[in-house]
Amino acid sequence: MKRTLVIGDIHGAFKALEQVLGRAGLTDQDRLIFLGDYVDGWSESKQVIDHLIALKKTHDCIFIRGNHDVWCEEWLLRKEKNPVWVKHGGNETIRSYENSSLEERDRHGKFFSQMQNYHIDENNNLFIHAGFSSMHGPDKETYSSNYSWDRTLWEMALAADPNLDPDSPFYPKRLKLFKEIFIGHTPTTNYDIETPIHAVNLWNIDTGAAFTGKVTVLDLETKEFWQSDVVQTLYPDEKGRN
Question: 65: which residues sit within 8 A by CB, 6+ positions away?
């Protein structure tokens, strides 16, 4: 049976990505929606991107752009090394490309440039790295940086009364725009939770892979999920973004 699998933040953890896709029993019939932040943290960012490019040839894939991906794209295509990026995992990503050719870097840069800021599927589900602030939806967003940086959508969902009727005038209007919303960006481990968090109609699938958590894959329909081992156990000699 064809599934849609949603994948949370990876942050250079190629071993964890391979492991969790194996645990999910990935088949060539599955559709894959990646929520962004493929790089920065662990030592195999280039290997992650190589794997994603290969997956695109064999699977129906959608790649959402995360804030770390914006920084990496700037470096790959325009040779701009954002100093904030360097301090937040960029150094590890740069090192992973040390032995790569200019052709490889250009190919990866093109891959980054083709990522989507968000995706809305045929059932009106939204997939976005961080969020949006416009009351009229992401297509009316004034600041495109909100797609990969906004946390107000997530915090609003967390604070909302889960028993609130969707027809209530107090129900958050941004949440009413979509059947379900799937995000990454804010690690659930910030709340001492190692699994996806469901708040109202929003699912957060960033389970802290960059830090002390895991990479997670979620089945869109059944909400069954699979996780890698704690990423740091797969890279015992590294610190990630800790």
Answer: 36, 73, 112, 115, 116, 117, 129, 147, 148
CA distances to 16, 138, 141, 167 from 134, rounded to whole Å, are: 35, 7, 5, 20
The reported pTM is: 0.97
For residue 78, count CB atoms less than 10 angstroms from its CB and return exposed for 0-12, middle for 13-18, buried for 19 or more. Answer: exposed
Residue partners of 49: CB distance under 8 A and separation at least 6: 38, 39, 108, 111
Phi, psi of 154 (to 5 degrees): -65, -45
Q: If we measure between CA atoms, which residue out of 9, 151, 196 comes closest to residue 89?
A: 9
Q: Given this model, what pLDDT does residue 162 score?
A: 87
pLDDT at residue 225 tops 80:
yes
Distances (CA, A) of 18 to 48, 96, 101, 159, 215: 9, 17, 24, 35, 10
The residues that bridge with 5 in the sheet, in sequence order, are 32, 219
Q: Tell me: the pLDDT tens digits for 117-160?
A: 999 999 999 999 999 999 999 999 999 999 999 999 999 999 99
Half-sphere exposure of 6 (CA within 13 A, CB side): 28
